[in-house]
């Protein structure tokens, strides 16, 4: 950022503020002003229509806010549970296709590849890596849309 003459920046991650202290310190070291940031998924439910899901960026919050940290931790835990439920649904699909199932070792490899929130894009990458699909779009089209689990509890 410094080489590109950036003088103000923010870093956001889904449901996580874990990097904020380090990012603030690094920005300060290079004379860059820093704004705290987080990315949250927000679902609007309108009566009589499908829910609308949006990614919402939040800025300038107190990184020491324990209530925020606790809520983000609950969201990450749900995301991890959701990913495991999706993997179980994928195993059901793989059984129908007489294909090998995801093992605990596979799940561990996916988890180890994640820096932050575990979600469907990481599963899609693994499906490509294993040669089950040609690309991420095929992973979503063939498996991840039909094996979906709601993002957050109602």
The CATH topology label of the largest domain is: DNA polymerase, domain 1
What is the overall pLDDT average? 90
Structurally, how many domains make up the residues? 2
Tell me about the biggest sheet?
Answer: 2 strands, parallel
TL;DR of this structure?
The chain contains 5 helices and 4 strands. It has 154 residues and is α+β, with helices and mostly antiparallel strands.
Outline the structure in words.
The chain has a two-stranded parallel sheet with strand order 1-2. A two-stranded antiparallel sheet has the order 3-4. It is of the alpha+beta class and 154 residues long. The mean pLDDT is 90. It has helices at 20-29, 66-96, 104-112, 120-129, 136-144; strands at 8-9, 33-34, 37-44, 52-59. Helix 1 links the parallel strand 1 (8-9) and strand 2 (33-34). Helix 4 crosses helix 5. It is 45% helix and 13% strand. It folds into two domains: 1-64, no CATH class; 65-154, DNA polymerase, domain 1, CATH 1.10.150. One of its GO terms (molecular function) is 5'-3' DNA exonuclease activity. It comes from marine sediment metagenome. InterPro entries: PHP_domain, Pol/histidinol_Pase-like.
Ordered list of secondary-structure elements with their pairings:
Elements: E1 8-9, H1 20-29, E2 33-34, E3 37-44, E4 52-59, H2 66-96, H3 104-112, H4 120-129, H5 136-144
Parallel strand pairs: 1-2
Antiparallel strand pairs: 3-4
């Amino acid at each position: 950022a410094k080489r590109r003459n950036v003088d103000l920046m923010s870093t956001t991650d889904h449901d996580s503020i874990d990097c904020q202290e380090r990012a603030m310190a690094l920005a300060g070291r290079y004379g860059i002003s820093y704004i705290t940031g987080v990315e949250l998924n927000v679902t609007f439910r309108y009566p009589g229509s499908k829910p609308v899901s949006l990614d919402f960026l939040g800025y300038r919050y107190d990184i020491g806010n324990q209530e925020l940290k606790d809520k983000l931790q609950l969201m990450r835990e749900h995301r991890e549970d959701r990913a495991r439920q999706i993997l179980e649904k994928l195993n059901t699909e793989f059984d129908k296709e007489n294909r090998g199932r995801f093992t605990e070792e596979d799940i561990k490899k996916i988890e180890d590849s994640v820096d932050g929130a575990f979600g469907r894009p990481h599963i899609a990458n693994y499906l490509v890596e294993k040669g089950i699909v040609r690309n991420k779009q095929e992973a979503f089209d063939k498996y991840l849309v039909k094996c979906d689990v709601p993002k957050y509890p109602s």
